[in-house]
Every structure is written in structure tokens, then in C-alpha cells.
Amino acid sequence: xxxxxxxxxxxxxxxxxxxxxxxxxxxxxxxxxxxxxxxxxxxxxxxxxxxxxxxxxxxxxxxxxxxxxxxxxxxxxxxxxxxxxxxxxxxxxxxxxxxxxxxxxxxxxxxxxxxxxxxxxxxxxxxxxxxxxxxxxxxxxxxxxxxxxxxxxxxxxxxxxxxxxxxxxxxxxxxxxxxxxxxxxxxxxxxxxxxxxxxxxxxxxxxxxxxxxxxxxxxxxxxxxxxxxxxxxxxxxxxxxxxxxxxxxxxxxxxxxxxxxxxxxxxxxxxxxxxxxxxxxxxxxxxxxxxxxxxxxxxxxxxxxxxxxxxxxxxxxxxxxxxxxxxxxxxxxxxxxxxxxxxxxxxxxxxxxxxxxxxxxxxxxxxxxxxxxxxxxxxxxxxxxxxxxxxxxxxxxxxxxxxxxxxxxxxxxxxxxxxxxxxxxxxxxx
Length: 430
Hints:
By secondary structure, the protein is of the alpha/beta class. It folds into two domains: about 10-115 and about 160-430, Peroxisomal Thiolase, Chain A, domain 1; about 120-155, no CATH class. It is about 30% helix and about 20% strand.
């Protein structure tokens, strides 16, 4: 293959993050370095009657400080606001002000999860329905009496493609635009698609990311139905990835975003480069029984990412784990590492960042990837919080107690859904 038709190398030149441990990459990184958790007692609303009093909330977030088109805030859910803010931070970090990229060559690929309705938006309609029932009138009158109490644009807040739409509007991005809704794997799958867009010369720059918020009564209840939430009331012990006594995760929220472009394009404009994305793989268990499947989807994803990057397991400097902190999911993930990486799996340093900010579907994968990018930039791998009792069934080299100075600038970042949809990315510092 000649230089003229070689597949373009893809690099990350901008990073944005809105998380429970910090808004903006500097605050976020300092919290990781200090080992400061964002998990605390739920404050957005009363936790009475909920299965857990804990949450990882993004505090002091003022969307007007980060979103240009403020008139759209009224039709943005919390998830969307977090995602658009992170994308704007990434573009600013990349040194790409409005008009600096041909709009037709600027695209968006964003991941989103389930966007829950805000109860306040439906209260008046529910009261109208209750009044009809009390008066002995049929529920069929709801269309006549109740719908008038629901805003005509109410549904727009809940559509999962809205983050990508609003990011495109915010930056006048008229190139390829898509939304990935594969729960926790969404961010890395969006990354993979954005890479392919640039490599086939359909865009010069892609804004990539994912956003989610589980800080609603409905989402917390949904997590509880799936047996994902911890029953621990102490924030210091709540989220314990790969710990022998882990019993679940914590509801969180957040967003991460990245600016992708070809290496040549980045060098030509004098951009600062965080890393090169050298491989992304995907797979699926094909069953909801994670223990029986042994994380086969994640095995395929890791093997695919390594094959694409022309690297071996021994080349990896660290693993940025999914680490949901449930017994079943962590066990399946550890099994996948041993199958895909062999004996070296027990020696590669592992960090699990959900111990800082809990679980929030699509957005968590993006925020975790930000952690690896910054770790490689600074040469320090953040420790995993609350890891005190190694699980003999996982057998991983989990970094704990203190951060680890790194000499190997190659990372494997993974994400996996409850039913086995998996993605893995290999990134390398330049």
C-alpha cells in the first residue's frame, strides 16, 4: 500500500467532560489524581422510598455557561445539556472556533441512553386524569382533557437522537450525523463509526461523545429492577469494582466528548494531539446469561481491537475497565480479559473509574475514556477507589491505594452492556 492510499491515522485533538467529580478536563483530572469521589447522598430530590439514598450528581452545572444556543435549553433534557456542554468544551479544547471547519466536512457521532421523562412535565396531565377518574368519567377523555396539559414539544426532550442534533446545531455541523444507542457501549461504538467516516473521506473533523443521566426517580427505579444498585449507604463503600464484597453500582450522570481528525489534518493546522486511536472492536454475548457466556462478546471486541491495531496483549500499558461493580458483570468482564489476553491479564494494570462516579449508561463510557486520555497525557494512572478485598475469581492487577506512574503509553478501554453488547478501543499516545 502506497503512502497516497494508506488508511489515515485518526487522532484525538480535543476533550470535553461534565462529570460528578468535575466540570472540564482540568477539574476532572485533579479529582482523579486526588482520589476524590463524586458519590454522595442524593440531593436533587428526596430519596425516600428509593432503593438507595446515594447518587453521583453533577453539581454546580450551569448549562448557560457552556451552551451557545440558549433558546434551545427549554427543549433539552438534562442528558442533552450535559452532552452539548461537553461537545462545546471539546471543540474549544481542540482550538476549533466557529467557522474554522467547513460545515459540510464537520460531522457528529454521539451515543445516548434511555432519556427518562421529568415527572414535573407530566404532573398537571396526571392530575387532570385523576380528576376525571374521581368524577366517574372515562379515561378515554384524557386525550381531550389531559393532553392539553402536556407541552407540544415534550417528547423532543426524550428522543435519543437529540444530543447529536443539538451538537450539530451548536457547531453548524452539516456532515455525517448519527446516534448510537447501545447502552454502555455507545461511546466506543460512536468512536468506531466516526473513525470510519473520516477514513472514507466523508468528513475532516468529527465530534464524538455520549451523555446520560440516571438522576431521576424513574431511572433509579429501573436500575433497581435490574438488580444493579448497591444496598450500601456509605458513599465510601458504595461502588467497589472487582472487590470481593461488591454488591452493585450507584446511579450517576455525565458526558464526555472528543474531537477526531486525521493525523495529517491535525499536524497541518498545528493541533495538540492527545492520542491516536489505533483499533476499535465490537462483539456481543448473544445471551443474557453473562456467567454462562463468559463475556464472549467482550473477548471478540478486545481481540478485534488488538488485531486492528497490530498489537499484542503484551503491548498494553493499562486497561480502563468497565467495572460496573455488580457481582455478575465484573466476573464476566474478568473472565473475558483472561480469555482474550491470556496469562498477561493478571499483570496489566487495571483502573475502574466508576468507583468515582457510578454508572450512567452511555455517558459513563465516554467519561471513562476521557480518564484514559488524560492519564496517558500526564503519565499517571488513577487508582480504583474502594478496592480493599481482591476477588479471587477475578484475579486482576487493580491499581489501588495510590496512582501508578506509567511508562507504557498504550491503553485498552472497554465497555459492556448487561446483555453482552461490547466494545473495546486501543489508544496510543503520540
